[in-house]
Specification:
The protein has 3 helices and 21 strands. It is α+β, with helices and mostly antiparallel strands. A hairpin with a 4-residue loop joins strand 13 and strand 14.
Length: 425
C-alpha cells in the first residue's frame, strides 16, 4: 500500500488582514496624490531660467556725467526763398512751349505762348471803340466851342449896343438941359440904355454858364474816352499776356502744362526761382519740436558739406507727426547745392553743463519712466526702473535709477519682457 503527499488545504484568513491591506493601498494613493500636488505647486512657483544672450548682439553703454549738448534732428530739403508762380491771366490754349525746366530766364523772358482768337477780337473792338470815342470827343468839343463863340459874339454885340445907347442917352441929357430936345426923347433914350444894360448883364451870365456847360460836357466826353482807352489798354495787355513771360530772373523750375491744353485764368503755367537764395525746410518729430525756438543755431548737412544757419520759422501746426521748421542759411552753400536737394538738419536746443547721461535707448522718450537691463558683476543683467529726463539726438539725461559707471543694455529688449534677468555670454 503506497502512501502519498497530503492534499493542500486553504486556510481562511481573518477579515482584519484584508481590511489592513485595503487601508494601506488607500494611504499609498493619497500620499502619491499629495506628492504630485506638492511637486506641481513647487514647479509652478519656480522662476523661469534667465535667457542666454550674446553680448555682441546688443548695444551696451556706460552712464557718464558731464556737459550735454541737446539737439534735435530732422530730414528736409533745400527750398528757394524767392519763388514766383506765373498764372494765366486769360483763358487760352497752349500753343507752344518756348523754354523748359532748368533753363535760366531773365525778367520778361517768354516761357510759353497761348492762343485765344476771342481775346484778340475783343482787343480790336476795344481799339475801334477808343477811336470812336476820341472822334466823338473832338466833334463835341468843336460844337461846344462853336456855340460858345456864338454866345460870345452875341454878348459882345449887346454890350456894344448898350454902350451906344448909353452915349446917346448922355448926349440927349445935355441937349435937353439946353432945351434943344423934348423931355420925352430923353426919357426914351434912358429907357433904351437901361434895357440894353440889363440885356448885356444877362448875356454875360449866359456866357459864363455856357462856359461851365462846355467844361462839364467835355469832362463827360473825356471820361468816356479814358474809359475806352483803359479798356483798350487792358485788351492789349491780355493779348500781350498770351505770351507768358517770367516775372523774375532765375531758373525755370516747372512748366506743368502741355501743348494743346486749355487753361483758365488763374491756372499756374510756370514756376521760376532764384537758385542762389535757398533755405532749408526741416521736418522735426512733433515730440521733439516743443523746445525748438526762433533764432536757435542749426547746421545743414547737404552730403557735400555742412552749412550753418538759424531757425527762421516754425510751423504752428503739425502734419503727419512732424513740425516743419525753416532754417535761414548763414554760411556759403557748397557746390552742387540746388533746390529740392535732400538734406539732414540738426538744431541746437541748449548746452547743459553737468548732467548724468547715457546713449539714448531704443525706446527711451524724454521725461519718461522705463526699465533697462543693468549689467551685474556675474555677467548677468537685471531689469531696473530708470527715470529719463531731457533728451538729445543720441543721448538722454538720467534722472534716477542709475549711477555713474553703470552699464545698461540700450537695444530693444521687448522680447525678454517676461524675464527680470538675462545672462550675457
Amino acid at each position: 500500500m503506497a502512501f502519498g503527499l497530503p492534499a493542500s488545504v486553504d486556510i481562511a484568513r481573518p477579515a482584519s488582514v484584508a481590511r489592513a491591506r485595503k487601508m494601506r493601498r488607500i494611504a499609498y494613493g493619497v500620499g502619491a496624490a499629495v506628492a504630485v500636488l506638492l511637486i506641481t505647486l513647487g514647479l509652478s512657483r519656480l522662476k523661469p531660467a534667465a535667457p542666454q544672450v550674446e553680448r555682441s548682439t546688443v548695444l551696451v553703454d556706460t552712464v557718464k556725467r558731464g556737459p550735454l549738448l541737446r539737439q534735435v534732428r530732422g530730414l528736409g530739403t533745400l527750398v528757394p526763398e524767392d519763388i514766383r508762380w506765373i498764372p494765366a491771366v486769360t483763358e487760352g490754349r497752349v500753343e507752344r512751349i518756348v523754354l523748359y525746366p532748368g533753363t535760366e530766364v531773365t525778367l520778361d523772358s517768354v516761357i510759353l505762348e497761348l492762343s485765344n482768337p476771342e481775346v484778340e477780337q475783343l482787343a480790336l473792338e476795344a481799339e475801334s471803340q477808343l477811336r470812336e470815342a476820341e472822334a466823338q470827343y473832338v466833334e463835341t468839343k468843336v460844337n461846344l466851342e462853336r456855340g460858345h463863340l456864338d454866345q460870345q459874339a452875341t454878348a459882345a454885340r449887346i454890350q456894344s449896343e448898350y454902350h451906344q445907347a448909353k452915349l446917346r442917352a448922355e448926349t440927349d441929357a445935355q441937349l435937353a438941359s439946353q432945351g434943344l430936345i423934348a423931355d420925352l426923347t430923353l426919357q426914351l433914350s434912358k429907357l433904351a440904355a437901361d434895357e440894353l444894360a440889363q440885356r448885356a448883364r444877362i448875356e454875360q451870365e449866359r456866357l459864363k454858364k455856357n462856359a461851365e456847360a462846355v467844361v462839364a460836357q467835355l469832362s463827360v466826353q473825356r471820361a468816356r474816352v479814358e474809359q475806352r482807352r483803359t479798356m483798350a489798354r487792358l485788351r492789349r495787355e491780355q493779348v500781350r499776356q498770351l505770351q507768358v513771360r517770367s516775372s523774375l530772373a532765375g531758373v525755370l523750375q516747372q512748366v506743368p502744362v502741355e501743348v494743346g491744353q486749355r487753361v483758365t485764368p488763374g491756372t499756374n503755367l510756370a514756376r521760376v526761382a532764384q537758385p542762389d537764395h535757398l533755405k532749408a525746410v526741416i521736418r522735426v518729430a512733433e515730440t521733439q519740436a516743443r523746445d525748438v525756438q526762433l533764432g536757435q543755431l542749426a547746421s545743414i548737412d547737404t552730403r557735400n558739406g555742412i552749412v550753418a544757419g538759424k531757425v527762421s520759422r516754425i510751423d504752428p501746426a503739425a502734419q503727419n507727426g512732424t513740425v516743419t521748421v525753416d532754417v535761414a542759411l548763414t554760411g556759403d552753400l557748397p557746390r552742387g547745392a540746388r533746390p529740392d536737394l535732400t538734406v539732414d538738419g540738426t538744431i541746437e536746443l541748449e548746452r547743459l553743463t553737468d548732467v548724468m547721461y547715457v546713449s539714448r535707448p531704443a525706446q527711451g522718450q524724454p521725461d519718461s519712466l522705463v526699465t533697462l537691463f543693468k549689467l551685474q558683476e556675474d555677467g548677468g543683467a537685471v531689469r531696473t526702473r530708470v527715470r529719463l529726463g531731457r533728451a538729445s539726438v543720441n543721448t538722454i539725461e538720467i534722472v534716477d535709477g542709475l549711477v555713474v559707471g553703470d552699464e545698461v543694455v540700450l537695444s530693444d529688449t521687448s522680447q525678454w519682457d517676461a524675464f527680470d534677468r538675462i545672462r550675457l555670454n
